[in-house]
Specification:
The complex is a heterotrimer.
Chain A (H helix, E strand, L loop, with lengths): L1 H17 L1 H20 L4 H14 L1 H26 L7 H21 L4 H4 L4 H32 L3 H20 L47 H18 L1 H11 L1 H6 L4 H28 L8 H5 L2 H11 L4 H25 L3 H25 L24
Helix pairs in contact in A: 2-3, 2-16, 3-4, 3-15, 4-9, 4-12, 4-14, 4-15, 5-7, 5-8, 5-12, 5-14, 7-8, 7-12, 9-10, 9-15, 14-15
Chain B lengths: L2 H4 L2 H26 L7 H22 L4 H29 L4 H24 L22 H5 L4 H19 L1 H11 L1 H6 L4 H27 L11 H11 L4 H23 L6 H18 L19
Helix pairs in contact in B: 2-7, 2-10, 2-11, 2-12, 3-4, 3-5, 3-10, 3-11, 4-5, 4-10, 7-8, 8-10, 11-12, 12-13
Chain C lengths: L1 H13 L12 E6 L9 H16 L4 E6 L5 H14 L4 E5 L4 H10 L5 E4 L10 E6 L1 H15 L4 E6 L4 H17 L4 E6 L6 H13 L4 E4 L5 H9 L3 E6 L3 H4 L3 E7 L2 H12 L7 E4 L6 E5 L2
Parallel strand pairs in C: 1-2, 1-3, 3-4, 4-5, 5-11, 6-7, 6-8, 8-9, 9-10
Antiparallel strand pairs in C: 10-12
Helix pairs in contact in C: 2-10, 5-6, 7-8
The chains are: A mainly alpha, B mainly alpha, C alpha/beta.
């Protein structure tokens, strides 16, 4: 038993050393940022101190980090499926918008419906129904929008990078059109305000989340909502789906080697569409959760980022940071969320321009992704993160062509 | 409102102007991708090139030390150098460090987006205009009705962009360097076996790609718009990447894609100006829709370079 | 001086009017704005106004924190919540109509904190919310009347962002102004569906010029592109939100400038008198909140 514990400890330490390059990369990114900060006459130590404080320094800061991480995690889960299936999905932004439009519409319509008599007896039942319908609707809309790119790739050979970049722009114009038209808040008609829907009724909102630890509860009076729990739960589900089901195996097989999969009798086109469908669905969930859990209405300033906060892009980064593993995407998204929220604090406290933060984020991404080679070299015999995740070793061998 | 109100000479001229930055950036990206490197950071490099070029011209004109054409050439040079350096960095990250290309490209994009804005705010402050590349009036040619307006009344960088299209095609298809690029992108093991340095070729193409992206940015900031503002490119670099796929990694069709996209954009502006009653949202999305539809109906499809996004590992 | 202040303080306490938050005699404001403080447009107009208030009241009586570039609503929400929760600020400003939902939520949660937001009329029926807006159509009308009189080609081009808010007000006012002074003139309006896409705005201006426009106008921060086109083609430029005279050089004619300080001074004196909000304000030419600047 002692020996087993020792081996486990050794393996654990080995793992830790694996992450040293990531830490060194982070330090290097901090170093370069420090040079920029010093050039701007800012004390780097206090700047990074504020960044840390803004990300996790208070209960509210931690909550905001998690709030920021939630849509990123949804998108990252979807991106993981798409990339595993060999589809480079750049369309998270557009798919988020598609999901949000559908989800918000459902929530608004059902929010106006009178509670059916037999449901009124169980408190909360109808609320749950509205929220569930909206989430499912948002998922489906995003999935169809992503699936469209998969369909175009499978049957017309339209490269998905091209179609998803274009579909992002189309989605945002569609949103502008609908929000300024049929979905416009009736109370706003006649005024000339920013295009937005009416506010969701309370029944259609995703409840806020607080943990029953201490008094008052942790995260009470913050914006943390149940979207995070849904996202983490789905990360586990998708992990199981990808590595423990034959459908998941087929998606990954197509991603690893399209031709070989085809010879093995896998319907490659169907898997392409499926992986884009699922990827779009998760981005759609990210969009609808932002509406139901946070903003309680959908509004646009005309740019995609005005609504998505670029989660459609940041999700790509988080997915790759997470080693294209849905479980890995959880800490990766939290890290990225903290980076974004902390950076805002840094800007607020010492007047560092927001643009510096953007540049620093870029550096961190480049440095961390560059450091991976050292991890791979250390574990040459262990399979690399990108190609074959550890779980592949215990691959069920039962699957065959479907 | 007749068709001749919509398809005016000025619309064609407008399409040529709009296509210019896309052509520069997409040609550069074509080189990189043909050798197997996907650079998603084009937009960030464009922004840095746009700022670098603008700032050089701005300084030269403020100080009045350089004659105007020299100041403009300095701007071009700076844009090429800045873009080339960022391309070189991208090459180091993707070739030597073998980083995942999609993610590192997004990092490069964010870095360029942030740094260009930061430098602009610290060094310039508020939007200021410069005297950029003037429109060229050719003797006789410019005065030809219609054709003169469409083809012979643009600034120098517009002509450079279009001249680069056949040049790029020639380099890729007819030179040893081009052969090496294609070999490295298609079958790096074989190229390596034949004594071609995969790394060196990829460094070269990614750097060229960066230089052209820098020039794409400068074509906006010192030739077409003549000023800089944060996020000046408004995502054009991503469209340029998409156009490389549209054109199937061939310079001529890539340029054709850029023209199609820009033409539809010019057309939607003209249709709105002359007062057609269609929702602006649909007009603005038209170029994106039509680019996808055009590709759906295109018959010949080129396979993407086999080694695209795959770092080369010797002896695997 | 100090004695007088103490006296007023005691007096104020006596009648129960002392603002609960003002721990010292400095009035503190915090504001978010979606784009850069030097965008020559919407965000700059608020930054300039806060600077003007500071000039007026003095640095020891008025201080402000400003976070710009928060076009992502959630980023603004984090800042606004932190400021509201800190209790350090006498007034929290959300400068952008996209921030309405956030203000509505926070104002309910922090009823003791004053909020102001715009451009909108809606105070959500809350005692601690002020809303402000600009009658941008008024200056638009003035600009339009002048443009109608000045045009030689009889064609005027407008480059707008999205057809909402003060942008739509300005454009509508401008078109009406041209119609009043020169019914023969044609006004071509293009909304490019973006506040920030400079290349597209630039080409929209080129398209106007190609269709014989000799006068251009527009609103939002992407107008810097159209201004450059006006200069290059010898056309005239009319602007709004902030002064663009320096950038527009000889092309610039008339600019409608937002003077939010007019509204801010009202809100501040109300808060100092113990009234946290509840009113909506409008900048007009009559109340001095809109000022026309002419050049060229």
């Amino acid at each position: 038993m002692n020996q087993a514990a020792g081996t486990r400890l050794a393996a654990w330490l080995n793992r830790l050393v694996d992450f040293a390059p990531v830490l060194i990369a982070l330090l290097l990114a901090l170093l370069v940022s420090s040079v920029l900060l010093v050039a701007l006459n800012v004390d780097p130590l206090s700047a990074f101190g504020f960044m840390l404080e803004g990300a996790v320094g208070t209960e509210n800061a931690t909550a905001e980090t998690l709030v920021k991480a939630t849509p990123i995690l949804f998108v990252a889960i979807g991106i993981t499926i798409a990339f595993r299936g060999g589809m480079i999905n750049i369309g998270g932004e557009g798919q988020m918008i598609a999901g949000a439009l559908a989800g918000a519409t459902i929530a608004l319509v059902l929010g106006d419906v009178r509670v059916p008599a037999d449901m009124a007896k169980t408190p909360g039942a109808f609320d749950l129904l509205i929220v569930t319908c909206s989430l499912v609707g948002g998922f489906l809309a995003g999935a169809l929008y992503g699936g469209l790119a998969g369909f175009l790739k499978a049957y017309f050979g339209v490269n998905e990078i091209l179609s998803t970049i274009m579909l992002n722009q189309i989605a945002v114009q569609m949103m502008n059109f609908l929000l300024n038209g049929v979905l416009l808040d009736p109370a706003e008609a006649g005024f000339n305000n920013i295009p937005k829907t009416a506010r969701l009724v309370t029944a259609a909102q995703l409840p806020r989340l607080s943990l029953p630890l201490g008094d008052p509860w942790i995260f009470d009076r913050t914006r943390l909502h149940w979207g995070l729990v849904i996202a983490i739960a789905l990360a586990v589900v998708i992990y199981i789906f990808l590595w423990r089901t034959s459908l998941g195996y087929r998606i990954r097989a197509v991603g690893e080697n399209e031709r070989a999969s085809s010879y093995a009798g896998i319907h490659v086109k169907r898997q392409m569409m499926l992986s884009m469908f699922l990827a779009g669905g998760f981005a759609g969930l990210a969009g609808v959760v932002q509406v139901l859990g946070l903003q309680y209405r959908l509004q646009t300033d005309g740019s995609p980022a005005g609504f998505t906060a670029s989660a459609g892009f940041n999700g790509i980064v988080a997915a790759l940071f997470g080693g294209l593993n849905p479980i890995g995407a959880v800490p990766a998204s939290a890290f990225f969320g903290g980076l974004l929220v902390g950076a805002q604090k840094m800007q607020r406290e010492i007047g560092v321009p927001a643009s510096l933060i953007t540049a620093v984020n870029g550096l961190i991404v480049v440095f961390v992704v560059s450091s991976e080679i050292f991890i791979q070299q250390r574990s040459k015999r262990r399979v690399s993160l990108q190609e074959t995740p550890p779980a592949l070793a215990d691959e069920p061998t039962t699957e065959e062509a479907g | 409102m007749g068709l001749d109100d919509i398809f005016t000479a000025s619309v064609f001229a407008s399409a040529i102007r709009l296509a210019t930055p896309y052509i520069f950036a997409a040609l550069g990206e074509t080189f990189a991708q043909r050798s197997g490197v996907l650079n998603l950071g084009v937009d960030g490099i464009m922004l840095m090139g746009a700022f670098g070029g603008f700032y050089a011209v701005h300084l030269a004109q403020e100080a009045g030390v350089l004659a105007e054409p020299l100041g403009l050439l300095l701007g071009v040079l700076v844009a090429l150098i800045v873009g080339g350096l960022m391309g070189l960095a991208m090459a180091f990250v993707s070739v030597t460090l073998k980083a995942k290309q999609g993610i590192s490209g997004i990092g490069v994009y964010l870095f360029g987006l942030g740094l260009s804005e930061l430098l602009f705010q610290q060094l310039v402050g508020t939007p200021k205009s410069v005297a950029g590349f003037p429109r060229i009036s050719f003797p006789v040619l410019t005065d030809i009705p219609i054709l003169g307006e469409i083809f012979f009344h643009h600034n120098l960088l517009v002509y450079v962009a279009f001249a680069l299209v056949p040049i790029s095609a020639f380099v890729l298809n007819r030179t040893t360097f081009g052969l090496m690029i294609r070999a490295v992108g298609q079958n790096p093991e074989a190229a390596d076996a034949m004594g071609v340095s995969v790394a060196r070729v990829r460094y070269a193409t990614t750097t060229i790609g960066g230089m052209l992206a820098g020039l794409a940015g400068a074509s906006l900031s010192i030739a077409l718009i003549n000023l800089f503002q944060q996020n000046l490119t408004a995502g054009q670099g991503f469209i340029a990447v998409a156009l490389v796929y549209f054109g199937g990694w061939r310079p001529l069709t890539v340029a054709a894609g850029a023209m199609l996209f820009s033409f539809v954009n010019a057309l939607q502006l003209q249709i709105k100006v002359i007062g057609a009653d269609i929702p602006s949202e649909f007009a603005v999305m038209a170029p994106y829709v039509i680019t996808i539809i055009a590709l759906v109906f295109a018959t010949k499809r080129q396979e993407q370079p086999t080694a695209l996004t795959k770092p080369y590992e010797r002896g695997e | 001086m100090k004695k007088a202040l103490l006296l007023t303080l005691v007096l104020a306490l006596f009648v129960g009017l002392v603002p609960s938050l003002a721990q010292d005699d400095v009035f503190r404001v915090a504001a978010v704005a979606p784009s850069a403080t030097n965008d020559l447009a919407f965000s700059q107009s608020m930054y300039d106004a806060l600077m003007a208030v500071q000039m007026h009241m003095g640095e020891d009586a008025f201080q402000f924190d400003f976070q710009d570039g928060t076009f992502i609503v959630d980023d603004a929400a984090v800042a606004l919540r932190e400021w509201a929760a800190s209790g350090d600020y006498d007034l929290v400003i959300a400068h952008g109509s996209q921030f309405g939902s956030v203000v509505e939520e926070l104002a309910g949660e922090f009823p003791e904190v004053s909020f102001a937001w715009g451009t909108d009329f809606n105070t959500f029926g809350m005692e601690n919310v002020s809303a402000y807006t600009a009658a941008a159509d008024q200056g638009g009308y003035v600009n339009g009347v002048m443009a109608g009189l000045m045009t030689e080609s009889g064609v005027i081009g407008v480059v707008g962002p999205i057809e909402v808010g003060d942008a739509k007000l300005y454009v509508d006012g401008f078109v009406a102004g041209v119609g009043a002074s020169n019914p023969e003139a044609t006004v071509n309006v293009v909304y490019i569906q973006s506040f920030s896409d400079v290349p597209l705005a630039t080409e929209a201006a080129e398209t106007h010029i190609a269709n014989d426009a000799d006068i251009l106008t527009g609103t939002a921060q992407m107008v810097v592109g159209p201004i450059a086109i006006a200069i290059e083609n010898g056309a005239r430029w009319f602007g709004t939100q902030a002064s663009q005279a320096e950038l527009a050089q000889n092309a610039g004619v008339g600019f409608q400038i937002y003077k939010w300080e007019v509204v801010l001074m009202d809100i501040i004196s109300n808060i100092q008198a113990g009234e946290l909000g509840g009113h909506s304000y409008e900048l007009t030419l009559a109340n001095g909140g809109l000022v026309m600047e002419f050049s060229g």
